[in-house]
């Protein structure tokens, strides 16, 4: 316990200083200041998951802008979808989207979610996220940097 | 308006307004200790405001139980917030300000939510409900026996009487019976409010969730009520703990200045207890579910020793 306490004291704040807040008001005013997020892996290679984990880690700390990952689509305001939508995940993704109470937002994270990336044309792939559920915003990159994911989330919370 | 009703209303406003702030403070303390910046103390209020404006979803196949449960939990916790002498010993309903009634009301809040979890008919709802009820069944005996130990010096289970007796003789707090009961009730609070090491309030792993597994199907305004209810329970339990063991500052007469001191003292004491709990949680890992009964059996033993000490050491 003492070693942990010393480590806490020595580390201090790991979070990097916050970049300038987004100038534009949030696209959905009802979600200003608080956006609960449900992450859906629709067939990702887990590269984007590592970056999302890092965006919510101590260094980038997306929670300080009012974004939070939740356990249920019923609790969520936004779906964070990664990967090309595989055949097996098309129906679960659609159902997850239907379970989210309105107003709801879908964020496609990574090149695969936008246009299937390197998996385009693969036999197990249905298509990009936009072919299954309506997408409101996209984060490009393979994988996108945590800063870019955090910036997309801040555009939603407006903080 | 009698002093009791005025005091009760004041406590209700204070607890409802302060409960989300307490939750925000505890998350902020944890965030700072983890090296994060944290979303700020007001974040739970922002979450609640947003949830109230969202669509209300009633899952297919659910009954009235699912719809009524959030209102009932909040209502039962509110009754406790009104009658317990948090700020003033003048209670609007002195008969209800009894430890047994208070514990029963708080337990009912849990039972109602567990029933709602079963009502959804999902695997996680049932699993969460069964876990919550298991913990509740192990916690209730400890709570009742610890209360019994505390009621011995005062000669009453009425909370105003216990508080007045402690204020009259502060040495009672350091009596062995009181210290043992404090530790036992502390564990009860941890288990009942779903904190570490019994339940992890920030986990999103379905297999380790206890409280959250029951409420996975709630959305929008009903979820806001469920979350407000959880925050209220945390505040009321911590408030109960500080009222019983650190009662100084509670107004014993109907005087405006005394009430103001009572409000400030209550806010400071509960905030300090919450911050301490949040800081302690950083050093704890969640117990395996099958180890939780061992912890709670330990707390029951302490409560039993407290009763023995209350009679033998007087």
Short characterization:
The complex is a heterodimer of chains A (159) and B (314). With 159 residues, chain A is of the alpha/beta class.
Question: Percentage of helical residues of chain A?
Answer: 25-40%
Give the spatial strand order of the biggest sheet of chain A. Answer: 2-1-3-5-7
Rg of chain A, nearest Å: 17 Å
Largest sheet of chain A: 5 strands, parallel
Distance between the termini of chain A: 36 Å
- The number of strands of chain A is 7
Average pLDDT of chain A works out at 90
Helix content of chain B: 55-70%
Number of helices of chain B: 11
The chain pair forming the largest interface, with residue counts per chain, is: A-B, 34 and 33 residues
Helix and strand topology:
The complex is a heterodimer of chains A (159) and B (314).
Chain A: H1 2-11, E1 35-41, H2 47-55, E2 67-69, E3 78-82, E4 85-86, H3 87-99, E5 105-109, H4 111-115, E6 125-127, E7 137-139, H5 146-157
Parallel strand pairs in A: 1-2, 1-3, 3-5, 5-7
Antiparallel strand pairs in A: 4-6
Helix pairs in contact in A: 2-5
Chain B: H1 3-33, H2 43-52, H3 64-83, H4 99-119, H5 123-154, H6 159-168, H7 176-192, H8 211-214, H9 220-245, H10 256-281, H11 292-312
